[in-house]
Amino acid sequence: QKEVEQNSGPLSVPEGAIASLNCTYSDRGSQSFFWYRQYSGKSPELIMFIYSNGDKEDGRFTAQLNKASQYVSLLIRDSQPSDSATYLCAVNLDTGRRALTFGSGTRLQVQP
Amino acid sequence: KAGVTQTPRYLIKTRGQQVTLSCSPISGHRSVSWYQQTPGQGLQFLFEYFSETQRNKGNFPGRFSGRQFSNSRSEMNVSTLELGDSALYLCASSSFGEGNSPLHFGNGTRLTVT
């Protein structure tokens, strides 16, 4: 099992719809969770971070964390073609590594 | 506030050579992390520096090394380059490091080894 797992996609949604991106992680004791967006040929850009169970909203983005089930998700409301990118989940795993471990990313395509 | 600056943006090197990449963090950030990104392996952690000390290290061979200066600027060095070292090398700075605070990435250095 991968330490941080994401469906590679592509996830295709129509413009204006809600895109739901999911991420599972291997260590129950993990404390810090981050979502990054990466456009093709560019570097990752921080979208949101979440530390506590529940939802955290920032504009069109909502991060959801469920530590008991070991998953974190990102919802994008009113998806726009400009949201088309790869979304990376990053977790500070409770392995003693003391660094962010990234998933392989989910490619999102928003169809106009 | 200026972001993370990496130089150079592109490098082409030959097998067996060595290379040095440079990174200037966001002002006030004392933690600098380095990641390697390849299509097959994704983002892999190389190492993290904080106050001139290497605090954490990933699973890369000793050919990969780094250092941090008193002004928090960091360099990474790869010696005896191999074809498999071709990748995007990303530097990221953060306030506290160790995965506890958000990483802010630079634009990366794309290294091609021929």
Q: Order of helices and strands of chain A, N to C?
A: EEEEEEEEEEE
Beginning-to-end CA distance, first to last residue of chain B: 37 Å
Distance between the termini of chain A: 36 Å
Q: Give helix % range of chain B.
A: under 10%
Structural class of chain B: mainly beta
- Oligomer state of the chains in this structure: heterodimer
Average pLDDT rating of chain B: 95
Q: How many whole angstroms does the radius of gyration of chain B measure?
A: 13 Å
Spell out the blueprint of helices and strands:
The complex is a heterodimer of chains A (112) and B (114).
Chain A lengths: L3 E3 L4 E4 L4 E7 L6 E7 L6 E6 L3 E5 L2 E6 L4 E6 L8 E8 L8 E2 L3 E6 L1
Parallel strand pairs in A: 2-11
Antiparallel strand pairs in A: 1-3, 3-8, 4-5, 4-9, 6-7, 7-8, 9-10, 9-11
Chain B lengths: L4 E3 L2 E4 L5 E6 L6 E8 L3 E9 L2 E5 L6 E5 L5 E5 L8 E8 L9 E2 L3 E5 L1
Model description:
The complex is a heterodimer of chains A (112) and B (114). By secondary structure, chain A is mainly beta. Chain A contains no helices and 11 strands. In chain A, the strands form 2 sheets. In chain A, strands 2, 4, 5, 9, 10 and 11 form a 6-stranded mixed β-sheet that branches. A 5-stranded antiparallel β-sheet of chain A has the order 1-3-8-7-6, with no helix packed on it. With 114 residues, chain B is mostly beta strands. Chain B has strands spanning 5-7, 10-13, 19-24, 31-38, 42-50, 53-57, 64-68, 74-78, 87-94, 104-105, 109-113. In chain B, the strands form 2 sheets. In chain B, strands 2, 4, 5, 6, 9, 10 and 11 form a 7-stranded mixed β-sheet that branches. In chain B, a hairpin with a 5-residue loop joins strand 7 (64-68) and strand 8 (74-78). The radius of gyration of chain B is 13 Å and the shape is globular. Chain B starts with a strand and ends with a strand. In chain B, 39% of the residues are buried. The interface between A and B is medium-sized, with 23 and 22 residues.
